[in-house]
Amino acid sequence: MQAEDLRFEQVLDILERLYQRGNRLVVLEGGEPMLWKDGPYSIHDVVAAARKKFFSVGMTTNGTLPLDVDVDTLWVSLDGLEATHNALRGAPIFSRIMDNIKRSQHPRLFAHITINSVNAAEIPELIRFLQHKVRGITVQFYYPYNHQDELFLDFDRREKLLEEIIQLKRTGFPVLNSFAALQALKRNTWRCDDRLIDNANPDGSITQGCYLKNRADIDCSKCGFSPHTEISLACQVNLQSILAGQRIFF
Ligand code: SF4
Question: Which of 37, 101, 229, 241 is most buried, by the most CB atoms less than 10 A from its CB?
């Protein structure tokens, strides 16, 4: 759910509606959740309310603020090694993020990497760099929101890179995406099953299914949303994906 511009009462209402719709896991993301405030309420109040309802509460942050939030799973988004991350984010923030990661005692602190045409070449090195700094790493591929988007990584490079990531996972690097999902993402040979996903929008409405609905044109042939891959495979009773979900959230 995206909570940045919502009032606290609206956030509580969304959490309740998500719960009533059958959701039992929630991930707070969109904008920068750690910055969310409404009068006396901060993101810590949102997390506390969510934890009362849901089996597991996750959050994705840019990592620039102290990672002291009491979620079950905490992802820090990383777009590359220092120069690449700073260039893609337009600010010299990489060293601050690394300091925050170093200071964090969070038991399930993960890095989440969105792979694109600019950072693709250094992803294996980034995974090696992160190995002992975070508990796990998840990867997904950049979706071309504008059709001629230069950040989109072509499928030949995607396949080659996924082979390298699979090899790293085989040799013990903490890549949390399942082998099944990594294989399926090579040429998008997975069948999307997005029934189990709900997205809360900034206006408080809830959209069922793919994250792109009501946000951008959907071109499934270019999809790289690995969480959707994993959830779809889990719905189709792929045990690797079910176990990957368990490892990430519980
Ligand atoms: S873009 Fe991806 S997640 Fe969205 S409907 Fe298509 S395959 Fe599913």
Answer: 229
